[in-house]
Specification:
This protein is α/β, with parallel strands linked by helices. It has 2 domains: 66-281, Aldehyde Dehydrogenase, Chain A, domain 1 (3-Layer(aba) Sandwich), CATH 3.40.605.10; 286-482, Aldehyde Dehydrogenase, Chain A, domain 2 (3-Layer(aba) Sandwich). The strands form 7 sheets. The protein has a 7-stranded mixed sheet with strand order 15-18-19-14-13-21-22, sandwiched between helices. A 6-stranded mixed sheet has the order 10-9-8-11-12-24, with helices on both faces. A hairpin with a 2-residue loop joins β4 and β5. α10 (296-308) packs across α11. The termini are far apart.
Length: 535
């Protein structure tokens, strides 16, 4: 296959998938859409356009590179909007905050086509998966609203224990810094941003390095749906603008999805570590364990989608496959055939599976990992490993051994390392000694053996998938990890708790205090002390 021919000529790009250059100058601070006239960052698409034998990556726009001054202005706006917890937004009732988010999500749905197209061009995500990311984000917001209603209903009652009358609710922390990843720049950013907002915090959000322009259509919605200073956006080099924010000590919560190394650098810059709350989604090296009695048709299908959906650029992807010696040859034959059948193409191509990679230098980095394995005795057992600009044809590498980089390091791309094993203990030891602990998959039929592996693995990872791939959803399930894979738990309900803290208003149950509380409730004097039931 000539990979160069997969890239389109300009005339071959349908009008509904074409993209117009967007030179963004806008950013949102203190309820104002401000115009940036300084240095900008050029947005280069992973999609190349072919002109004869020449391939050229497309520049699709630019975004502001604001500096420390602008970052601190955004911080001041968020801190002012918080106003020691007395600001308009944290003081609003839960019902009023929900109404603002509902208004936002209605407006957001009108931006679907624009955002989906930008997802394709900015990060090379297929049209189908881009639509899925947008729709799932909408669903997440709706489910978050429903979860908050239920949480508030439970909190609307009073408790009387040992002569103390009390109401227990959840209160926001303050100012939150949200930083999402490039692979799900809309969905995973919003899985922290929306719960942080709806619980009453003020927010500064910084998009990832890739997948930036898709936030532009939402800036006016953020401005119009929330009080000024509640939502602020920053565009720029994280090394320039994140340090001053953290060093100020005014960030109360860090919500970051990315590498553990970067998270550690950011976190350590805060001068008050005991004050800073962190919600982190980090690296993973999720293993699949394929036992000799596994249904190979199921294992192959799940392993292909699990390891190579969106080019393997998912934290929940299967990053290494452990296959029992007795079936490894059969598995590799069927698995390689299925991998080679995956369609390479542009994001808008029908039934496409493998698309261009957005990260600069990614294909060369993947090649270096494969070269390391080949030098140490492994082989590419399928028809993969070919590179052309930003396209990398998926490679199945076997046998992978502990001395290879691919054995321990997360590849985050279309490479599938396969390890042969004899004893289940080898799998358990791998999971125990891994620096990561997000998920694992077990494929097999023997209830005793599967149970033994599950019981061992649940103390090393936070989700064990039986005869299916690793995944995040459904979003009502807890999503977290051990060790260097996560801090905090994100699900629809868990995220609401992550961005808030249980707080109590309590008094001795004297007649005088009971009358005082009755009057507060009757006159609706307090947004905290109330028995309102949200329908």
């Amino acid at each position: 296959m000539n990979l160069k021919q997969i890239f389109p000529e300009r005339k071959d790009i349908a009008a509904n998938y074409a993209v117009k250059r967007v030179d963004q100058k806008e950013y949102l601070v203190n309820g104002e859409i401000r115009i940036w006239n300084g240095q900008t960052h050029e947005i280069v698409s992973p999609i190349c356009v072919r002109d004869g034998d020449k391939l050229e990556r497309q520049v699709i726009g630019s975004t502001p590179l604001v500096g420390e001054k602008e970052a601190l202005e955004a911080l001041d706006a968020a801190v002012k909007a918080w106003d020691l917890g007395r600001g308009e937004w944290p003081a609003k009732s839960v019902e009023d905050r929900i109404a603002c988010v509902q208004k936002f999500v209605v407006g957001m749905q009108t931006k679907r086509d624009e955002i989906v197209n930008l997802l394709m061009w900015e990060i090379g995500k297929s049209y189908k998966d881009s639509c899925k990311e947008f729709d799932r984000t909408i669903q997440y917001i709706v489910e978050t609203i429903d979860a908050l209603k239920e949480l508030d209903r439970v909190s609307s009652r009073f408790q009387i224990v040992d002569g103390i009358v009390a109401q227990i609710r959840r209160s926001p922390y303050g100012t939150v810094l949200c930083m999402g990843p490039f692979n799900y720049p809309l969905n995973e950013t919003f899985t922290t941003l929306i719960p942080a907002l709806i619980m009453g915090n003020t927010v500064i959000f910084k998009p990832a390095k890739y997948g930036v322009l898709l936030n532009r259509p939402l800036l006016e919605l953020f401005r119009d749906c929330f009080p000024k200073g509640v939502v602020n956006s920053l565009y720029g080099d994280g090394k320039v603008i994140i340090g001053p924010l953290m060093k100020s000590g005014k960030i109360d919560v860090l919500a970051f999805i990315g590498s553990a190394k970067t998270a550690n650098i950011i976190e350590k810059q805060h001068p008050y570590p005991n004050r800073l709350r962190t919600i982190l989604g980090l690296n993973a090296k999720n293993p699949a364990i394929i036992l000799e009695d596994a249904d190979l048709s199921v294992a192959v299908k799940e392993a292909v989608t699990g390891s190579l959906s969106y080019n393997g650029q998912r934290c929940t992807a299967l990053k290494i496959l452990f296959v029992h010696r007795k079936i490894v040859d059969r598995f590799l034959e069927e698995f390689s055939k299925a991998v080679d059948a995956l369609k390479l193409g542009m994001p808008w191509d029908e039934d496409v599976s493998i698309t261009p990679l957005p990260e600069e230098g990614k294909t060369e980095w993947l090649k270096s990992m494969v070269d390391d394995a080949l030098a140490k005795g492994a082989k590419i057992v399928n028809k993969g490993g070919e590179i052309c600009e930003t396209l990398y044809k998926p490679a199945v590498i076997y046998p992978v051994t502990p001395d290879m980089v691919l054995y321990n390091e997360e590849q985050f791309g279309p490479i599938v390392p396969v390890v042969q094993f004899d004893r289940d203990e080898e799998i358990i030891e791998y999971a125990a000694h891994s620096t990561y602990g997000q998920q694992a998959s077990v494929f097999g039929k023997d209830p005793i053996r599967v149970s033994r592996l599950v019981d061992a693995l649940v103390n090393q990872v936070c989700r064990v998938n039986i005869n299916c791939q690793c995944q995040r959803g459904p979003d009502v399930f807890p999503f977290t990890g051990r060790k260097d894979s996560a801090e905090g738990t994100l699900s629809v309900s868990d995220a609401l708790r992550a961005f808030s803290i249980r707080t109590i208003a309590a008094a001795k149950a004297t007649d005088q205090n009971k009358e005082l509380i009755r009057n507060i409730l009757k006159n609706r004097n307090s947004s905290f002390i109330n028995t309102d039931f949200i329908l």
